[in-house]
Amino acid sequence: MTEFLVEFFLVFMVIGAIIALETKDLLSSVISVGAVGVAASICFLLLGAPDIASTQLVVEVLTVIILIKATIRHDLVTIDGDREFFGLTVTLAFLFVFSLFGLRAFWSLPEFGTPGIERISAAPSNNYISSGFKQTGSSNILTAILLDYRGLDTFAELCALFAGIWGALAIMRVRSRKKKTGNHDEKK
């Protein structure tokens, strides 16, 4: 079932990317890009990488917020009667599909209190706990996991988060710099 869901979301991401490229409306394009990012986050979650999924979601939210802010200044959106009905229909269809996905995920959760280590004997966490101190020489298992076993992954996640934050700050700084130069010109 997981393979089917990943394939479904991959097709969804391809369709969203095509819509983002082909649409004339900038706001619709940004929303399509956001949908692609959320679908990628769900794919990472289905493939067993919740840390990458959460990083993808944070970066996607920051990117979409920045792009929407930039788009709203440059693009006035008007809604026609026919487009409103079509948009509502597509939105309700996607909400229905994602609700089914959410219910399926909710029903497949293990009973509360059941540790993941007991359910999956080949989980990497079993190796981390049983031989992590010997293999890494660390006195703290969390540090051993983050820096020794998952060092490159942790570094890539931090780089992605800092790039998103610096990108947001750079865009905001350009806007405030324009305001300052405008006020300086008025004083002269």
From TrEMBL:
Entry keyword annotation includes Cell cycle: no
The organism's taxonomic lineage, starting at the top: Bacteria, Bacteria division TA06
Subcellular location: Cell membrane
Organism of this sequence: candidate division TA06 bacterium ADurb.Bin131
The MrpA C-terminal/MbhD domain, residue ranges: 11-70
InterPro entries: CPA3_Na-H_Antiporter_A, MrpA_C/MbhD, Nuo/plastoQ_OxRdtase_6_NuoJ
Transmembrane residue ranges: 6-23, 30-47, 53-72, 84-107, 155-174
Gene3D superfamilies: NADH-ubiquinone/plastoquinone oxidoreductase chain 6, subunit NuoJ (1.20.120.1200)
Pfam family membership, one: MbhD
Gene Ontology CC: one annotated term: plasma membrane
Stated name of the protein: Na(+)/H(+) antiporter subunit A1
Membrane protein topology class: Multi-pass membrane protein
Assigned keywords, A-Z: Cell membrane, Membrane, Transmembrane, Transmembrane helix
Predominant location: membrane
